[in-house]
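Case study 2.
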Amino acid sequence: MTRYTKYPRTYHLPWSPGVTEDDRVMQDLSCFEGKRVIVTEKMDGENFSGYRDYCHARSIDGRSHYTRDWAKSFWTQRAHELPEDWRVCAENLYAVHSIRYGNLPSYLIGFSIWNEQNECLSWDDTIDWFELLDIPSVPVIYDGIWNEKLIRSIKFNPDACEGYVVRLAEPFNYGQFKRSVAKYVRANHVQSQKHWFYGKNDHEVNGLK
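Prediction:
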């Protein structure tokens, strides 16, 4: 593996209404059949990866931006707890993108941890590590054996939630990502990256508890 790793593209579930022309869809869902899966809320933020000695957004170049300062400061206070060559992946929710949050437990909300073998830890181990690192985790909507009918029926407020993510509860390696994780994104989800990143330093900030 490379020293630092870009978070992979997440394929859409076949019934996700938010698919764009640049997206890919996981047509074969047999990878989930008979397996324990975790369905979590899809948070509307910027991707964040943190290591013992570095952190970056989806792009590994780590360009500085004031919306990333809080997450960087928060991470550097606990990065020493992480084993060498491991990384934490999270959502940086400092800036308001398309959804306004008003009661967040933190601006950095974790969703996965990867070890030195570029393997995503099991969900149970991930939660144990988030507790050790004092990082809140994404809210869980469902934890159980894969049930397509049940998962298709998940209801949420599209004004307050971008969608949901399904992942295998068991560990999997980086190369297996596209067969281990999939997402549902609300219809007409606005892609606002240009606005919040390149705009003036006067955009809105989400609220903490």
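The two ends are 38 Å apart (CA to CA).
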